[in-house]
Structure formats: C-alpha cells, structure tokens
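ENTRY TYPE: protein
CONTENTS: sequence, structure tokens:
***
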Amino acid sequence: MTDSPAPRPEPADAARTPRRAPAPGTRKLDAERSRRLLLEAANDEFAAKGFAGARVQDIADRAGLNKQLIAYYFGGKEGLWNALSRQWLEREKAFNDPEVPLDELMVRYLRAALDDPRGPRLNVWAGLTGTAPEQEREDLSDLRRRQSAGEIGDDLDPAAMLLLLTGAVVGPVVMPHTVRAIFGLDPESAEFQEHYAEQLRRVVRRLA
C-alpha cells in the first residue's frame, strides 16, 4: 500500500512531442541568477570562514546549486574571490566621489562597511590566514591630491593615513566586542553608528 497516487500514463501524442530547449533569453536569466546566488553564497562563506576555510561544496549548498557551476562560471574558488573584488569596486564607484571632502568620504566608507560587514570580515580573515589571492598595490594618487589641496597635513604620509583610516572604518565591524567594551553600546545600534560617524568626521578634519 502506498500513500502516493500511481503515475498516470502519458498520452501517446505527448510522448512523441519533443521537449523544447529553453529560449536564449531564459538561459541568460538562469545564468545571471545562478551567478548572483553563487556570489552571495561565497560572500557569506568567505566572511564566516575565510578564503582557506570556505569549501566549494558549502558555497554551492548555500546557493542551492551544483558545485560544478562554480567552476563553469568562475573557474573555481579563486575566481569567486576575484569576482567579489570586482563587485566591490563597482559598488565603491557609487560613493567614492573625489569631489566630496575627505571627512564625508570616510563616513561613506563607514556606512558601506556597516551596511554590509562581509567585505571587511573576509579581508580580516585574509590577513590572519595569509591565504587570499595577492592584492594589487593601492593607488594613493587621490590622497596625494587631497594632501596638495590641504586636506591632509604636509608632514603626514598618505600611505600611513590610508592604513589608519581603513582601520577606523572597519574597526566597528570586525571588533564589535571592543565597541561594546569601550562605548557600552551595540555597534549595530543607530546611537553608536551616528556618534561614531560624527567622531570620525572630526578626526579626519584634524588631519589638515
């Protein structure tokens, strides 16, 4: 005895009807959806476990897709990492305006880190484990331009300033326990984020 109904015989005409291949537009949408799901899953896995700790199978399982699609679309785990790096650069273009003052720019970076903490967290993993793909050297031309314009003191090294400001931006994201210990506030609370953003503005203004 079975709880499921017996399969119904297929009509003879239907059995002879060939299956239609998906239209090119449908295949494109499916590919874009699969790529998007895999990138989101990889972002989550890298942020939680680091590049070395993230397994291709776990990324595929999180995305609900076959792991072979990672090799097909990205060439493997490193390809996913590189695709996420390019995705971040595209996102960065939306708010990294060379015309805005440096204090406002740093607050924009802070907001981006607070809105999606996965990027800073996976970068911390990369630094701790030393297993992430090698990054290109940072371009300091904008900070040098800002220094010439008086936003950064002449006696300050733009490279050192970039490192310090990067730490100031990602600190609340990668050390939430330290935020709670120092401020007595939840780093995800609006109270802390508004207060810290204003303090960051003031510190950056002092660099001049």
Notes: Residues 152 and 206 are 8 Å apart (CA to CA). The mean pLDDT is 87.
